[in-house]
Fold this protein.
Amino acid sequence: MSTTTPTAPADPERKAPPAKQRTKVRLGDRIFSGAARGAGISLLVIMAAIAIFLVVKATDALSENNGSFLTDQGWDPNAAKPAFGVVTLVFGTVVSATIAMIIAVPVAVGVALFITHYAPRRIAQTLGYIVDLLAAVPSVVYGLWGYIFLAPKLLGLHSWLADYLGWIPIFDKEQAGVTARTLFTVGIVLAIMILPIIAAVTREVFLQVPRAHEEAALALGATRWEMIRVAVLPYGKPGIISASMLGLGRAVGETIAVAMVLSPSFEVSVHILDPGNNTIAANIANQFGESGDIGRGALIASGLVLFIMTLLVNGAARVVINRRKAFSGANS
Amino acid sequence: MKATTRTRTADRGTDIRTDPEAGMTKRIEVAGLNAYYGSHKAVEDISMTMEPRSVTAFIGPSGCGKSTFIRTLNRMHELIPGASVDGSVALDGQDLYGSDIDPVAVRRTVGMVFQRPNPFPTMSIYDNVAAGLKLAGIKRKGDLDAIVERSLRGANLWTEVKDRLNKPGAGLSGGQQQRLCIARAIAVEPQVLLMDEPCSALDPISTLAIEDLIALLKERYTIVIVTHNMQQAARVSDKTAFFNLAGPGQPGKLVEIGDTETIFSAPTEESTADYIAGRFG
């Protein structure tokens, strides 16, 4: 004890100057860290406020619901006896987004590969620029174009598919359709809409593939396509998945383009070549203006369902990416 | 059926390793070769012969075109946009730059190991070695197993990795990764093995392991190695070629080639002696 007592006061004295220097915070640093922290906290507060508001409004409407929210096909929340169910909306959202992804992902990967590995440099630059530009086109433009131009042009394709592939239930056409404002057309419009964003992100990912890996494949006697298969695609896979998730987010959340193109109904129909079905986002856009309190609550509840669907899909994608983390390019 | 194939492949493997005559090693003759990046001439008028079943080392200061030249030997050079080659490179008399020659086939015949170990990060150790075989159309599991084991043994890596063949190749140490790359290159049974500074990113112990391996591999392959380390050239090679350039922006040229012993003890050219003595470069 006696030995420590004399050293104890000496110690702080010796250490004091460097400690003081280390902890000295400049005014600018303090303001910046305060501002950053404030921004972070306010984001959380806003998120929480939105979540609470949505849940409260949704539960209000759900408690007035006379039907089953999860299984009813109809949507009549503004009637004297409100009854509404989300199943048609979920079905339409899932199907249209699936069609969009099936078309858009392979084409976008192809576009990105062409830009990064096949096109001459000058063409590649121009194409890359155009892809970026397309990604910035507002969705209402795609909606107008889909409704006025594309849908009429697709009538022929609809009957062709029904004629030759009609034995597959989804391509079976029950109504002798005079309109192509169908879920199928919606899927195509969505595909065209999300293609640029997927292509733009995948292109960036493919550009990150180290030249060393490409050369390794080529030196083994790989053709250009084999090199892409061996070195580029596996390395870019997590990026392709992330890019697809971005595109999927845009597809399931797309409101105005779907609302313009689709001729909706509240009945689940697997016949995607017939008009009908509906999506969550388009239904919100169509109904919000004419809804009362319960009607809005019901729409908010459907929005929450969309939110949960997106979370699930994103979670699944994350699992897929993480499962082979040890084999990702990040370790090279 | 399957068992027979496996035995046969394994037999073939042993044959090649025990009997040097069974190797398919070939002589490389280069005549009047120029290599360009766009309009810039990087390598000028190189003529030389690389003997089968021996190690030829390229030495010389940075920028003298050694790496460019070695990449013309398996037609990797022309993959760089704007790059071109004229002159001829003959493998046992067959011109690799002939109009009827498929560059992809050339790269299958002439294997290459790079400066930095570059195993495919998305593949396991096993799949890395099997990558070239799968490209060559060998799909049967039994055949693949046998060749993967033989190649990893040939690269002195088998005992270190045999219990973790399905772990990622990128998880190995730098020296092991480079031996994995050598295993990957020899799995497709090339006739020539090119090594572009294979030890420059490795520690001394891993370097020694690679040098020992080169001594073994030269029984079966024509080996060409670029190195910045003159002791390494002296240790591993039978012939040494010294490259130099007249000045910055000038093309690299072959100054002289000869038996390694002669080049290091009594070179013909003064610049070779100066370089080896460490007076420049």
